[in-house]
Q: What sequence folds into this?
């Protein structure tokens, strides 16, 4: 009985505390807020976690933001706020080392975009870019858009200025209508209003009219349906929308950034690829369809003339021989260094230099010299020619890639087991304001 009375008294006290002197109900008053959103734009880093650490209330976090991902605007307490960005990990030794620990001042009623950009292992170095989103008034029949240069389409480590052009389709003649000239890395244009309709933004190296380093259509948006309780989604065809267009590089191949088809252009190991003095070629398929573009960083793997382990190879007193196939057709040439593996006699393995080539025999200069050994499978000969590694694409057709590479390429005939892979540059369009 006593417990019941205590509970009733406590409930009565809560009711009294919830009323003002005039008998009305007291409501909580929210202080004026700033609004912030986070953007992950580092092409060679995995996920990141974002936290304000100076207070709990009105301190929105962001978790596991991977390359090209972002949060919506979130209410944030104004004033000087301490923000930390951490690598996403369950290992406390990793997460205890923040990438950034910054104090940023926000004003109430204003909108901010905070961008983690640059390269964790290159130049320009990773950095936080804080931009205030001062969206203009937008008339009916118009939309607003601004652009930010974060190094689109350039090889890892590059961050030169770009000119941004606008067009109606990705296939329209280059370059288009100049939208934002000479944007340095990390620089953003002001918002500009345009008539509603299709829009493609292109990034080109400043002062050039070809090639387009990125050429991506902006979202058109989706009309609302009040009867179905669906609101309008902003886009270039939805008047009074506002968008922020970020020009981003492709993810760095082999890094912690996403490596799926949306982020890289690639050939498969089953494709028959060859090497020319100026680049790479394919026998079927299309480099253009696969998404390769001028300015991309290219990574080649599996190249170098070679025999496969299932080939029946023998050793002679002067080099190596085969029973079928052709060393000439495969691209072995005089002066090429090769590496032999899988032979029983240790003297027959290791490096040597080719001094003569016929379809079925290689004469080599080797110390210690090769010694005769009967043919057998499980052996291989492989060139150490440096047709693998990174280069920058300077020209693209459906069947060929022209590249800038040091040291220069050495021609090789077509073979499978090779691959070409390149990060795919892209625009990320963020809706800043949806139509009412």
A:
């Amino acid at each position: 009985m006593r417990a019941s009375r205590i509970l009733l008294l406590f409930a009565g006290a809560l009711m009294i505390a919830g009323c003002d002197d005039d008998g009305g109900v007291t409501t909580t008053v929210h202080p004026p807020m700033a609004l912030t959103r986070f953007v992950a734009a580092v092409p060679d880093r995995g996920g990141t976690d974002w936290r304000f650490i100076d207070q709990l209330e009105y301190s929105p976090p962001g978790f596991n933001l991977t390359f090209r991902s972002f949060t919506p605007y979130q209410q944030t307490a104004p004033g000087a706020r301490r923000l930390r960005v951490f690598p996403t990990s369950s290992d406390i030794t990793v997460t205890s080392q923040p990438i950034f620990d910054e104090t940023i001042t926000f004003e109430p009623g204003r909108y901010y975009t905070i961008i983690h950009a640059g390269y964790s292992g290159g130049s320009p170095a990773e950095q936080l870019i804080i931009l205030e989103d001062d969206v203009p008034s937008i008339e009916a029949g118009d939309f607003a858009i601004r652009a930010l240069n974060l190094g689109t389409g350039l090889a890892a480590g590059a961050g030169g200025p770009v000119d941004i052009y606008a067009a109606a389709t990705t296939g329209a003649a280059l370059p288009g209508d100049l939208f934002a000239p000479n944007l340095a890395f990390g620089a953003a244009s002001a918002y500009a209003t345009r008539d509603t309709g299709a829009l493609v933004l292109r990034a080109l190296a400043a002062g050039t009219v070809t090639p387009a380093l990125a050429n991506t259509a902006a979202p058109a948006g989706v009309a609302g349906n009040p009867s179905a309780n669906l609101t309008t989604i902003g886009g270039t065809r939805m008047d009074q929308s506002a968008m922020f267009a970020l020009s981003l590089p492709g993810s760095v191949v082999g890094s912690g950034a996403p490596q799926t088809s949306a982020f890289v252009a690639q050939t498969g190991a089953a494709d028959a690829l060859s090497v020319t003095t100026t680049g790479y070629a394919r026998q079927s398929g299309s480099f253009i369809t696969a998404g390769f573009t001028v300015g991309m960083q290219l990574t080649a793997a599996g190249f170098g003339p070679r025999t496969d382990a299932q080939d029946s190879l023998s050793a002679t007193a002067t080099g190596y021989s085969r029973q079928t196939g052709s060393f000439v057709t495969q691209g072995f040439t005089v002066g090429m260094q090769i590496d032999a593996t899988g032979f029983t006699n240790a003297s027959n393995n290791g490096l040597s230099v080719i001094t003569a080539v016929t379809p079925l025999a290689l004469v080599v200069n080797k110390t210690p010299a090769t010694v005769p050994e009967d043919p057998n499978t499980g052996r291989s000969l492989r060139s150490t020619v440096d047709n693998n590694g990174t280069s920058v694409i300077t020209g693209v057709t459906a069947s060929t890639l022209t590249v800038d590479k040091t040291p220069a390429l050495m021609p090789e005939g077509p073979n499978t087991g090779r691959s070409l892979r390149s990060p795919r540059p892209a625009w990320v369009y963020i809706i800043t304001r949806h139509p009412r």
User: Anything to note?
Assistant: Confidence is low (pLDDT under 50) at residues 1-20. Residues 391 and 405 are 5 Å apart (CA to CA).
